[in-house]
Amino acid sequence: MFGVKNLKILIAGVALIGLAAAMSPASAATVQLTVIDTDDTVGDDTKLFRADIGLSALSSVNRITLTDDGTIVGGANGVFSGFDLDAFFIDLDGNFATNGDRISPLGAGSTVAFQAGSIRPTDNAAEEPSIPHPGPVFGSLNATTLDLATATLDSFDANSIANVFQADGFFTFGDGGELVWTFSDLLLAANPNMTLFFGEVAGQAGENLIVSVSGVPLPGAVWLFLSAIALLFGMSRRRMAAGA
Ligand SMILES: [Ca+2]
Ligand SMILES: [Ca+2]
Ligand SMILES: [Ca+2]
């Protein structure tokens, strides 16, 4: 006999497999994008870069990873080690001049996870943590928490100076640091023009980010969920036919 209890256990098991498939990073396709210097300056002194998400050929994108290239070239020392990010966002039509189609990392349904990289040694107090900017990098509260009020991730407003007492409007990665932007409740439809724009404060040569995009293959996960529902329906009918 296949009792109601066993049926519930089986269905729960199949549903869990489907859920795991939907959430597993191992099932996500990841593509590293080419980063292009636009030769434009935004704000007072921020160099603008772009990476064409549409060229990834993914059917959907729900995660963007920004990683300092770790070359320890360019920029300053201490809290200012590595890439200094002023702002970043997705632009749906790839045209920077039209700003009504921007998707901000500060928007609803977004999460931003941060891990500071390594710090170059310094004996300059202007490059060391201060009480309002505890570090370990500028614009962070600790190694895994950005100070969003300082970083202003949706605005090109950096005060470009390697002085912890005067700098504002950005955060620094640290060499090899990483930021992962995830859209927790949104899968963006494929769009050949979709572009990530981001800016480096002062734009020194050697300060580079590696950009990759990921998409969970939703059709496979949906198929598993539908299988679980079909199984539930089929077994319920069989149980009713048997008079159980
Ligand atoms: Ca900013
Ligand atoms: Ca636009
Ligand atoms: Ca810089």
* Count, helices: 3
Order of helices and strands: HEEEEEEEEEEHEEEEEH
Measured distance between first and last alpha carbons: 10 Å
Mean pLDDT level: 85
User: Helices and strands: which structural class?
Assistant: alpha+beta
Instruction: Give a count of the beta strands, DSSP E runs of length 2 or more.
Output: 15
Shape: globular
Number of domains: 1
Oligomeric state as shown: single chain
Report the sheet-strand fraction: 25-35%
Distinct ligands, ions and cofactors found in the model: calcium ion
Kindly provide the radius of gyration, computed on alpha-carbon positions and rounded to a whole number of angstroms.
Answer: 23 Å
Q: Stretches where pLDDT falls below 50 for ≥5 residues? A: 20-26
> What profile does the largest beta sheet have?
6 strands, antiparallel
The helix content, as a percent range, equals 10-25%
